[in-house]
Amino acid sequence: GCMGLDQCLNFDDFQKLARQRLPSPIYNYIAGGADDEVTLRQNTESFASVDLVPNVLRGVETVDLTTNVLGQRLALPIYLSPTALQRLFHHKGEYATAAAAEKFGTMFGCSSLGTVSMEELAKKHKTPQVYQFYFHKDRGLNTAMMQKAKESGINVMMLTVDSITGGNRERDLRTGFTIPFRLTAAGLAQFAIKPRWGIDYVRSEKFSLPQLDSHIKMKGNTLTIGRYFTEMLDPSMTWDDVEAMKEEWGGTFCLKGIMSVADARRAADIGCHGIVLSNHGGRQLDGSRTGFDQLDEIVQTVGERLDVLVDGGFRRGTHVLKALALGAKAVGLGRYYLFALAAAGQQGVERALAQMKAELERDMRLMGCTKISELNRDMLRFR
Ligand code: FNR
């Protein structure tokens, strides 16, 4: 039978519900990865390479999940990673996500490809805000976006550096998923069988990309997300550009998509406040190692000099605890909250966060820990 939000206990349940509600091009855009999706699968599988070794009899009636990361105080060691196009997933889009993040005291990142204006979003929700930046060929656009982010009082700039060209997302090529989003004749049938999504979508504000619209229109065509990266983003970007951008921003600055130890060191050398170890949820370079697998060595190399964050494949509280025990300052969620958003909007994201919070509290107790800072490498064994 049909499942409801009340029956959603874990990631797979949210994913199932999202799949029931979404037209297939949109569902597949969220769910998919690059090439053969090896990295996409590996992201979650890699947690099995490490086992938790609990301690008992520690007096764990109260558990404190608060943490400090990138100059922000979060009530939870997890945050909602920036993702594109949220109003396609649920008509309230980024507003729903930000409202849920605010309720749970964590950070939310608005994407360059966000479907609501970052100024409006930052005005409405005072939760720690992250602005995720893509470095465009059009330098004027870069400056204008950064200026807007500054004026909006956004706390953290997160520059994504793993998408300098589009990943090969074959699901999008097959379904014809493009931006700006178009209801093609061929796609229409798929939308007709998801009436509830269709009615909400048609009734809500016209789809747009407020951060970029004029620039995409200038091109006068529709693009797959892969082609957007390839055509709009600047593949000539180097560390010099990052340093210049960091100067221009002036505030807390973080690089998303760092994977090598050498790059982590370089990020620390130029004074970045943080890095996110990430393979973009397996959507860019297939066959890439996972952020989680790189965590130990990178924390040991630069962990004293900047905050090391990680994302990719986190589906359980225990996955998060393993990363924290290796020294990650916080863990980013992507599809976990996106499927919940697609399933039930703000309520869905709140349920996803509540589930994750309950798992974290339970697992902390079972590990014999009452504070995040008590988690350490001695509580893990590598297989
Ligand atoms: C993303 N991600 C992403 N990252 C980014 O820096 N800017 C963006 O606009 C997007 N957009 C985006 C859309 C969708 C649909 C997904 C699934 C992902 C990557 C995201 O921030 C994060 O790195 C991964 O999603 C983490 O992996 P999991 O949690 O999805 O497995």
UniProtKB/TrEMBL annotation:
* Key words, A-Z: Flavoprotein, FMN, Oxidoreductase
Q: Could you tell me which SUPFAM superfamilies the record lists for this protein?
A: FMN-linked oxidoreductases
Q: Which cofactors are required for activity?
A: FMN
- Read off the Pfam families from this record: FMN_dh
Q: Which residues bind glyoxylate?
A: 29, 134, 169, 280, 283
Domain (FMN hydroxy acid dehydrogenase): residue spans on this chain: 3-383
In which domain of life is the source organism classified?
Bacteria
Q: Where FMN is bound, by residue?
A: 82-84, 111, 132, 160, 256, 278, 311-315, 334-335
Family assignment?
A: Belongs to the FMN-dependent alpha-hydroxy acid dehydrogenase family.
Q: What is this protein called?
A: Alpha-hydroxy-acid oxidizing enzyme
**Gene that produces this protein:** lldD2
